[in-house]
Amino acid sequence: xxxxxATIRDVAAAAGVSxxxxxxxxxxTPGQAIxxxxxxxxxxxxxxxxxxPHRIARALREGSSRLVxxxxxxxRGSASMASLIAGMDEELRRxxxxxxxxxxxxxxxxxxxxxxxxxxxxxxxxxxxxxxxxQGDGGDVDGLEAHAAVQLGHLLELGHRSIAVALPADPSxxxxxxxxxRQLEAAAARxxxxxxPIIIPREPSGAALALARLRAEHPRATAIAAFNDDVAFVVLxxxxxxxxxxxxxxxxxxxxxxxxxxxxxxxxxxxxIDAAEFGRRAARRALGLDTGAWxxxxxxxxxxxxx
Amino acid sequence: xxxxxATIRDVAAAAGVSxxxxxxxxxxTPGQAIxxxxxxxxxxxxxxxxxxPHRIARALREGSSRLVxxxxxxxRGSASMASLIAGMDEELRRxxxxxxxxxxxxxxxxxxxxxxxxxxxxxxxxxxxxxxxxQGDGGDVDGLEAHAAVQLGHLLELGHRSIAVALPADPSxxxxxxxxxRQLEAAAARxxxxxxPIIIPREPSGAALALARLRAEHPRATAIAAFNDDVAFVVLxxxxxxxxxxxxxxxxxxxxxxxxxxxxxxxxxxxxIDAAEFGRRAARRALGLDTGAWxxxxxxxxxxxxx
DNA sequence: GCTAGTCACTGAATCCGTTTAGTGCGTCTA
DNA sequence: TAGACGCACTAAACGGATTCAGTGACTAGC
Lengths: 307, 307
Prior knowledge:
2 copies of one chain form a homodimer.
Chain A: H1 8-15, H2 19-27, H3 36-49, H4 55-62, E1 67-71, H5 80-94, E2 98-102, H6 106-116, E3 120-123, H7 124-130, H8 143-157, E4 162-168, H9 176-190, E5 194-200, H10 204-217, E6 223-226, H11 229-241, E7 251-255, E8 269-273, H12 276-286, E9 299-302
Parallel strand pairs in A: 1-2, 1-3, 4-5, 4-6, 6-7, 7-8
Antiparallel strand pairs in A: 8-9
Chain A binds a DNA duplex through helix 2 and helix 4.
């Protein structure tokens, strides 16, 4: 058995052409007139030798790898991440690219960037934050805005009119949390309801304080739309500590439902998001391809005990 | 401004030597006699030009990138992952390598492997599962075994003698879950106590059934040591549904404490693990370096309401 | 009958760092 | 005084795919 892998030269020799021609065939290089017979010979040789282009060599020549790097940042634990990544990966693969996801710090990324030379670097927070809406959609809702509207809509349907918007204190969620606040405020205004932004710190004491202030300053608030499930859990814990219960004292909905929502005590109502389409779309964008018709990513509230 | 980056040839020209010599200096190639004066000239030129070796070119020549790929598998959400990755990343960086973490499927990884050609691929489940103990430790506990002992020790100290071991039904946790079972059984036996393995499926109905069976077949069981926090949450939810409460009916401890433990209702006692040292060690191993003195990674049970 | 153009293909340069196999020179040993 | 050896360096090959600039054969147009 040959210990080393087949190269483009081996393929060329087997097909009786030059490496140049093999490259033209394999990459469908435009402007090259190569008859089907020759193409076929090359492709048979490729199949027979089990040839795969050496990605590193190609990257050296092309200046970058056929890789896309996705920076997940603080959304690391986000539930829709899995479907987003799956969709993105699938679409990238279709175009001969692979996906790398980083969850780490920026400094850890420097070396990585140098080492893999990705074609594109995607920053999830920035993508989401930028509101990725298609050009000329005339102000129609885009992905995140639609989700926010669905979450709020659930509370509106249940008759709530004064709704607190619970945002995380962690600054790494910016500019996402401000965006969400604006989207919910706008959606509430459209429906003739009121949105009251409140900041929920991670620590129980801070969360308890924020909750107490809400109760004191906005006694008419009857529901809370949380930034994500984790914020909802903190709110629920603070309510429990204060002797309050959902939904009687305050209804609570999560966002981007994760596996813990159903297990929580009480089980949390939350917005379930399928982000696969969003991922596919982001992939096409990253590759500079047209993004196709924009389908709004589906989402719906799974109702449990807290609303 | 020069639009393209500095190459080794630029450095060589600036330092008045050949590219070969620059390479020898930068890589501290053994067996080469290069006076300090020349080394200094080269290093100044490097600093002045801001030269960084082109990782892709190097990878092409060397046959692999200075990268290590870590396969997180089902441990993706595991809380100690963060510290493990941080430690590993730090140590790898010290040796000029970078870390890539994959959370995805094997098929998605194929292309990635080809594209980045990592020096080593690490499979977390296999590393953990292999019991990574130093040679000749005479049967002393290694990392995971020590953690299991600490978790169980917490229950033993509280007077429990008949302890259920709650393992996930998800087969992707193998061989980790079997290993844990054996470790806890052994630790219990050493203390003259009994360990009762039970399998906890994700779905509430299955979990309820498993719990009911435990109560029926082992009425003397007073505590549950869970495989991880998620299993503990499922158990807690099943107990709540059955009208049982922790710790009065059954004490429950988690493993590898995550951010939800403190928020849970009731707040979950769990084992907090600092895996940074383990990560550093795994990194040194991956690079084929000596792993240094083996310090047992620290862990302790954070006691809350469920024990 | 000659130029222009297309077709089908190829040689060689290129990307950039590493490494092998030397070279020239001086010193030490037998 | 030849041979061996160490020192301080270098030229050229190498890894493998891509791509620019052709080349020879043939057809079409005037």
